[in-house]
Design a protein that fits this description.
It is built from 16 helices and three strands. The chain is mainly alpha-helical.
Length: 354
């Protein structure tokens, strides 16, 4: 397959990016350039905020694979794509297009509402990235905004290749399908409740106010990072603005559940907690079933062991949620619960039940 030169890559990237910027009404500066152009043209003209920003600009080509999305404090958004990094790689056009669409999606994400599921998780994960830089590098594709950007870029890249380069599309179809499979796995195994739990733990550890990370936390948490009562959460005027998945993820995480006395909750409070626990329970069940199915496929021993390890971790989470659901059922209907509990124990001891 013929390799693209720098001029051809610039033409393609401008064509792709310009169309997306117009479609999504984005005010973004886009720079497809070589490493030499980056240091001789972009860096000297950049308005960096402080010495750390300058160091980041200088280090950038050495710390990234193909591209970077700069969001400056003044709201300026620049997308840089280093073209010479694509010169000698396999599946050159596919990777170039995939990178362009991926970075565009990150610019779109910056406009997400704080009360949306994706917008809230993005804020949570931005905080976690700052605290756990090495973790982000290792598990880059497991973060929600990266999963979203990967899904967007995969779809857009296939669509573009099929329409404009049908021959290359046919040649790269196997690579694209394999790429889609990896994205699907990361999407299916994403655990929002766990990410939020980690953010709460970290904020308490470093004494960071969660309400400064996202205004959404203000619905659930006081300035000292302790949880509000369920009734106060429900009565908050912004509660109805929330994507219910945010509610479910927060109310079913370990920190919240350990802070509340289920027996003292009202029927309305029990109802929203019940919804949250059942939603998260179903997420974990679906993840377990997916991994179980994957474990039956013909895979190497190392991958199989990783799957088993992941399944065991999910089973542990499922058991915790089941325990809380049992407590919740007892609070909702104590008489019926006691009857079912006694009946179950009689059966387990082989006592005949009339």
């Amino acid at each position: 397959m013929k390799k693209l030169n720098i001029k051809e890559m610039k033409e393609i990237t401008y064509k792709v990016i310009s169309k997306e910027l117009e479609e999504y009404h984005l005010d973004v500066n886009f720079f497809p350039m070589t490493t030499f152009e980056y240091y001789t043209q972009y860096v000297p003209k950049s308005h960096f905020n402080d010495i750390n920003s300058l160091i980041q600009l200088i280090k950038y080509p050495f710390t990234t694979m193909y591209a970077y999305n700069f969001l400056f404090k003044n709201g300026k958004n620049d997308i840089i794509i280093i073209l010479d990094k694509f010169k000698n790689i396999d599946s050159q056009l596919f990777n170039l297009l995939d990178t362009c669409f991926h970075e565009i999606r990150h610019s779109i994400q910056q406009k997400f509402d704080s009360y949306s599921y994706a917008g809230f998780l993005r804020k949570v994960e931005m905080f976690l990235r700052k605290c756990y830089q090495s973790n982000y590098q290792i598990y880059h594709n497991c973060y929600s905004d990266e999963i979203d950007a990967n899904m967007f870029s995969s779809s857009k890249t296939k669509e573009f290749l099929k329409k404009n380069y049908p021959n290359i599309y046919q040649l790269e179809i196997d690579i694209m399908e394999e790429n889609d499979k990896k994205i699907k796995i990361n999407y299916l195994l994403y655990d929002a409740s766990n990410k939020i739990c980690k953010a709460i733990y970290t904020a308490r550890l470093v004494k960071k106010n969660l309400n400064e990370i996202s205004p959404t936390f203000n619905i659930f948490i006081y300035d000292d990072n302790n949880f509000k009562l369920v009734k106060d959460i429900i009565e908050n005027p912004n509660f109805d603005k929330l994507d219910k998945r945010i509610v479910y993820a927060i109310l079913s995480n370990d920190f919240y559940l350990s802070d509340i006395d289920i027996e003292k909750l009202s029927d309305e409070e029990l109802k929203i907690l019940d919804e949250s626990l059942k939603y998260t329970y179903n997420v974990y069940i679906n993840q377990y079933n997916f991994l179980y199915k994957e474990s039956k496929n013909d895979i190497d021993e190392l991958s199989h062991n990783d799957l088993i390890d992941s399944m065991e971790k999910i089973l542990f989470k499922i058991e915790i949620i089941k325990d809380y659901l049992t407590l919740l059922n007892a609070a909702k209907n104590p008489k019926q619960y006691r009857y079912e509990f006694i009946k179950k124990n009689l059966k387990n001891n082989n006592v005949e039940i009339l």
